[in-house]
Amino acid sequence: MPQLQPQPSADSGFTLIEMMVIIVIISIMTVLLAVAFPVVQRQQQLKLTATTLVSQLRRAQQLALDETRDDACLQLLADQPQNQTRCSDIGVAIRNPTLITYADIDGNHQYTDGHDYVLNKIDAPSTVSLANKDFLYQGAPPTVNAFVDGAPSALNAAVPLDMTINNEVTSLTVFPYGYVQINK
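RESULT FIELD:
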């Protein structure tokens, strides 16, 4: 017995209206994606910058706690042995758009360009702008003493910091012990 195969009819396939509906749906989804992309990109830049700041704060705190002294820093103070302990006073300075990890060899508890020894510099994304701020950790094992903008601070003190991404300001709260809270 021969098998019957369906015969194509004249009304099989998509109508013009069905095709137009699909095109409209695809267009709407494309517009929604285009609108959402900058928001997602901004959130990622915010998270990246906050994570980098946390990493640098924790690194500085650990270096100060370990009383780690960079050899090049010690060489700068070779003629001042009484001040060589300053090479283990480690800070993070925010100088838009750069995060600077430094040894506070001039002893003023904040970053001074040309006077303090720079351990490293990390640039924030080009679309990110941070307010200038200084965090310093002075090694005093088993703890560290914290300074914010040259003044003593508790490690759990909340320090407000504004970050601007694409002309939108986001408020951060930085805790010197190494935590950054993104305020909505």
